[in-house]
Amino acid sequence: MKIVVDAMGGDHAPGVVVDGAVAAARAREVLFAEYLAVTADKSAATDPLPLIQRVSEIIQRMHKDGTLLRLSRQFYNLDLVTPAAEFDLGALNQW
Fold first, then answer.
1. Most distant CA pair in the chain: distance in Å?
2. pTM of the entire structure?
């Protein structure tokens, strides 16, 4: 039996055909969503802020030029960029 994945399922992206998969009931709504992040040790001997700022600049540039959206659609077949961009990082009070 071949199953076409229609949502993220473990390590399978949407649209992937999986041999030997077991059919399951379709969820009516998103069951779980997670924004991933990189962490830095604030107590490290080397100040992590310059690295964090540089990585943030690169990600912002990728967002601006459409690279993040292209990669999101290529690997996940959906736009994960727009909802993530609406998240208020300042609310986390990290720095």
1. 55
2. 0.52
